[in-house]
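call fold(seq) -> tokens
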Amino acid sequence: MKGNLEALLVMFGKTPKKPKQIAQPAQVIHLQKRTEKITKQQIEEIRQELRDVEAGKYSKKWRNRRWISIIVINLMFTLSFWIDIQLFEGSIIASRVLGFHMADLYSALQVVLAYKVMFINLIIGTVTVFIIWILLGGRAFCSWVCPYHLLADIAEKIHLKLAAKKWVTNHEFHRGVRPVFFIVFSILAFVLSYSLFNSINPVGMISRALIYGPGIAIVWLLFLFLFEIFYSRRAWCRYVCPMGLTYGLTGALSPLQITYNLSACQHETACHIVCEVPHVLECVKKGRAGNIEVDIGTDCTLCGACVDVCPTSSLRFEFKGLSHIS
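ret:
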């Protein structure tokens, strides 16, 4: 189950470890993999595959789908405002879509803490969004709707090209700082009666800039963009954004997830190279899977990059109770 205690602890910053108990069927497969001989040709094929992945030479089917999703959803808000048809009112953070109120969960919490009052439309909006993202996988919001995700994708692409030339180095932070930011922004909202997070949140900034036009906020967005290019890969999403943490918790019980199958996996770890949150793929390392089938954890953004790159289809989208999604 993707929302088990270990997966939640990993999302909050715990270092993923090998499971204490490994199911008997998985033990049999692990033993077979440890004893099987790999030819020089197979080793070279795996090395070439990794070189191709690092160079970006792999299928981008799911990446293209999520880019289209992000662009279309955000354009609907923009065009609805420009031509005044009032079908998509507001922004990605707080809106009314086809008459239904919607509100981002963490941004709504900030408003409640800052103003010490519960607005009825805010309650309706958060409940609606909560139900939607329980069904759609929680952090799927991050890779399929969030406009900053597209900007972070571009920054990451540039960063990796510069890193390949040894011009920049990626600096990692402890993932445990993200829940700290969650708490700090919440306390500040309550104490200051002002939502500092909603003022600096790049998700809302980009959404409002697309709809109403850019303002001084473009300076902050440019700083984040350059920071992720030259210093730390996907820093905002991995180490800061409390929205991602909130959607991860929301999707803990979601039937939509990425599932890993141990049987055919070659453990070449190409998926780790492309994954936005590689700590969720600890199970693909040799000897780490606790069962033949493992649900990828709650911090997974369901971006599909690992599905695109896996040569043996050992990673796939799955809606529990239904067949897998291709």
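The chain has two domains: 5-36+255-325, 68-249.
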